[in-house]
Amino acid sequence: MTRFALALLILVTGFLGGEGRASAEDGYRLWLRYDPVEQPARDQYRRLACQIVATSGSEIARSAAVELQRGLGGLLGAPVPVVERTSCDGAILLRREPASDTGPEGYKLRSGTVDGRRATVISAGSDRGLLYGAFALLRRVQTRQSLEPLNLRERPGVALRMLNHWDNLDRHVERGYAGQSLWDWPRLPLWRDPRIVDYARANASVGINATVLNNVNSNATILTPDWIAKVRTLADQLRPWGIRVFLSARFSAPVEIGGLPTADPLDPAVRRWWRNKSDELYVAIPDFGGFLVKANSEGQPGPQDYGRSHADGANMLAEALAPHGGQVLWRAFVYAPSADDRVKQGYAEFQPLDGRFAANVIVQVKNGPLDFQPREPFHPLFGAMPGTQLALEVQLTKEYLGFATHLAYLGPMWEEVLQSRTYRPRQGSRVRDTVTVMAGVANSGTDRNWTGSHFDQANWFAFGRLAWKPDSSAAAIADEWTKMTWGNEPGKVATITRMMMQSRGAVVDYMTPLGLAHLMGSGHHHGPAPWVADLERADWNPVYYHRAGRDGIGFDRTASGSNALGQYAPPIQRRFAQVSTTPEPYLLWFHHLAWDRRMRSGRTLWEELLGRYDRGVESVIAMRSSWATLRSEIDEERYAQVAAFLAVQEDEARWWRDASVANWQDASRRPLPRGVRAPAHPLSYYQKLRFPFAPGQAR
Amino acid sequence: MTRFALALLILVTGFLGGEGRASAEDGYRLWLRYDPVEQPARDQYRRLACQIVATSGSEIARSAAVELQRGLGGLLGAPVPVVERTSCDGAILLRREPASDTGPEGYKLRSGTVDGRRATVISAGSDRGLLYGAFALLRRVQTRQSLEPLNLRERPGVALRMLNHWDNLDRHVERGYAGQSLWDWPRLPLWRDPRIVDYARANASVGINATVLNNVNSNATILTPDWIAKVRTLADQLRPWGIRVFLSARFSAPVEIGGLPTADPLDPAVRRWWRNKSDELYVAIPDFGGFLVKANSEGQPGPQDYGRSHADGANMLAEALAPHGGQVLWRAFVYAPSADDRVKQGYAEFQPLDGRFAANVIVQVKNGPLDFQPREPFHPLFGAMPGTQLALEVQLTKEYLGFATHLAYLGPMWEEVLQSRTYRPRQGSRVRDTVTVMAGVANSGTDRNWTGSHFDQANWFAFGRLAWKPDSSAAAIADEWTKMTWGNEPGKVATITRMMMQSRGAVVDYMTPLGLAHLMGSGHHHGPAPWVADLERADWNPVYYHRAGRDGIGFDRTASGSNALGQYAPPIQRRFAQVSTTPEPYLLWFHHLAWDRRMRSGRTLWEELLGRYDRGVESVIAMRSSWATLRSEIDEERYAQVAAFLAVQEDEARWWRDASVANWQDASRRPLPRGVRAPAHPLSYYQKLRFPFAPGQAR
After folding, report:
1. Which of A9, A10, A21 has the most B C-beta neighbours within 10 Å, making it the best mutation to test the interface with B?
2. Is A154 a catalytic residue?
3. Which of A554, B109, B164, B341 is the most core-located residue (most Cβ within 10 A)?
4. Residue A154 in 3-state DSSP?
5. Which residues in chain B have their CB less than 8 angstroms from residue A448's CB?
């Protein structure tokens, strides 16, 4: 057979497999794949799913039944009828239970007997609970868990589990690496894009119940009547899936679109304007969630422009929303152009305001005190504002971790921060105990696979699952996602979850090891640029953060330095004040150390640092090898994309490693130890690289 | 049955139909749908397609076989084997015939006998011809034409049939309304997006054989080595489908990336730089097509910056490309900030250069002398440069015809210009006889349906079909596209083609009737703004074009005015010099007329103008009604999107009509005749509308 005929034969085989492009494995279905379960498990599940029993309810209850039908129909390979009364043995019931112990969103899954027939009952005190219960049941089938006997109860750990979309009104997504904004503003309000429903389903399936549609760097136009009409259509599409819409509000909107001379939060006309605007919003969107506000931060307007405090500003908006049950998410991500250590400023501005925020204000705090770096210690505000509701804000979109191309599963990072002990307000407190809201900066866009890469879907999934249950293990979530997304074969699951669990550590190693941070290129944040020292503000420059010189490297944040450490609880202060008791992952975050300092390994800091970079690159090489072992077990399309992206990641990991090593050599004036590979190019080569067309830049 | 149960039942039915989102009718497949033919036709075709017989050949020949296999396999509902030697009665043969009468790209389809067996033979003198022949055969099956007896020969009417992508390197598409650029620059060269292959297939299916990847408002970065490597990957993906890559070259690249002090085309160092750059490109891309250049136009650099002519500039690039067989497309879209009528300037600058361009230079001329308006007379350069190769440039993306949302089939517009009599160089000449290249500004992007709307796919299709055969009828192409895209049912085809054929006329009526032009909003070109008079250059203002006042409306381009008419051949001059013999579609393009002037209809110009606007709106209403009759005949997803977009179109048609009428009332100081509906809002309302977030804006 000629090579030509052979190639065609392969194509024929592909054809017989039914693979047209339209049904290709392009990732559109996310983790909601619902492909038929293998035998004999399929028959076992079938015995427990002869019918779906649903009685009339809200559109949310209808979504639960519809999704069960869609999911079970796919998983079991045959339609499952929806009926109003059981008539077979082994039905699945969706049942509201008024006096429920599941709270406003929880659910129970129980095996039992109904009208003398065996049944699996999804019960809840709310239609929303039924929806989450339906997805939980489907997830059990997708991950091949038993449905019998079943007796479990779930309720969410935090009340508000929300995505923050940094989407501009021209559909550009700031820090977006997955195409354009999902919101088709030019065709709204008339066009109801069916994709929005799939977005809503994906969120509901992991318990996300709120979404902020527009960028925190906000434009007041979204609060004008024409745009509220557009938002209304989206809200109407999201509501049946239990998702409430919030908007990022520009603090100066009363001036920009209201025609007022001021946006002073204590000005009666301004207060009236916001009350009227709030009323207008609730007429259009009765379950409108409220406002997210970035104020007096990176050029955004805010109450301090008028000599007022963050509390004054937030409380004014809260007052306007309160009659309708709306909430204000007020971001604590602020830093002024002052001489003080930037990482201290959020705490310094907000901690003194504890107790001064209205009951429907939530202060939204990033996981770390800097800005979504590959690794940071937790933000000292967690635990330090017991009289204030706090939201934990994490970033799903990987602004600082290789955009969408690098494989970096963020579950371990979020678990790390949620499990961090704050020692405040109680001795046993952890970050997870101090927050009532989880907010994730979304990584979704118009890309066919939603997130720009198949593996970034895991971060969307993990965010939802952790927000639902902040005590979850990232490894367990990875296992679940892998089974739902790639299949249940044990060897495959083991390989993929191992890749995932090592991936974020790899990024830390090849980008910012040992507690380093903020070493990326200016503006676009693509690639390494630790040499940058010429930006307008000192605390925008990488050199501000690493402080590398002949004497050593690292930022002294102990009492002998900026004393940012002083913002943490005393047990943390004591532990991190000493180099010897500071965990290595945070070493150079808190200490400035000599290159020759001996590490626990016995190697010098210089050697250790070099070793981390190499370990990072090696981890990526190992991920590539692991992936290659799956070639025959993964559909061709997804296999190829992941393989190609891992190749890009290896290239870029080497670039990070080489540029960083060259920079530290230059700073330290040190030769490389024997056996350490020299960078591929001189430092000047890396310094000259420019990326004007990098995606996701702020505008 | 409750409404709830009913709704679910409908969903079950949907499920039984096998409609998951992944196989949804989302338009991704374009006109290459290959769904099974209905019986008994399917069996009849099957008798003629027992095998595909292909012998080894280039990768283009392989594409022909692969596509036949994919297409016939789908259409006939069962795989068709590819073999090297016939062994059944009724095979399809792909056969190279060295001494062919089909030219370098043509093909023949013939029923005949091979080795004593009945066969359908696709023969050609080139592998590219085989590819086009394969698509032609598939098209016959898709449109239910007979395969027997078959005896036809086709060869393209122009040698270069190319798309021009106005894609920036950050993936923003200037005048793009279908998402981002298809080229995933950040992940190139390592990532070979399979979508590029489907883009190539779509182009090949209609005979498009070249593509310019980047915006004519060009950035020199694309000519740097890192970017040439990216372009190379795309060229490698496109080549098997007979598509050559061109690049838009920035004239000042020798300065910007070459480090030279000048880009003077007569400077030896500059000439050397371009020769070296050309050599470098051909090492990476052996079949590189050449350069497209927008020079000394709208701020782009060009040879006139150095006191040289367009010919000097073009010939320098031509000289660099000539050793490799490359070509230069040099755009004639130029207009200086002079006092003269803007539509005269392209002719004035280029016609005197006739005969001075190198043999591998093609001057690329827009269909009309202004700028892709809903209707313009043909460009006077056609026929006026007999010593120069000319390209006809049309715009698939509907910058001035409602973006992607309005249904406007452009086949009739292009047919209109191609069939326009130039009377030059010969008495019988038409535009189609004066061009050797067809260039279309692409309307494709990352949107799932490629073009932003289902109906805009027709413009991509029609462009390719007309470029292949410039004498085609737009109606026949609409018929073909409709059958391939929506199905062959006669009633459906009649309804859809009727909508299509009336659609462009509707846009002309509600936007720019009776020869008006350039009345759109500034910058974004969204919506009406005939009142705009404050832009920096006179000829950027709508008032410059319509010249409406109390005395009348229209631009006198006869000898008593700008005499742009003088640039046409004498028979046209004579006909258009008189109002009475000027066709109404061009009336106000060439004449300034009193509001009370009697038209052929007996109505005054004022009444006639108002009538055209209303006719335009009514046409859209009629299209909506027509579409509604198809509800049960079209899949739900595509039906709903078209219906929603038509609703948007009606809204926007009314807006165009009302704002324009209000403006002309204001200009003419005339009351509306009895029975004419007053605009919904006062003129000031329309004047205050702002669209800062309109898509596709130039950056």
Report:
1. A21
2. no
3. B164
4. strand
5. 448
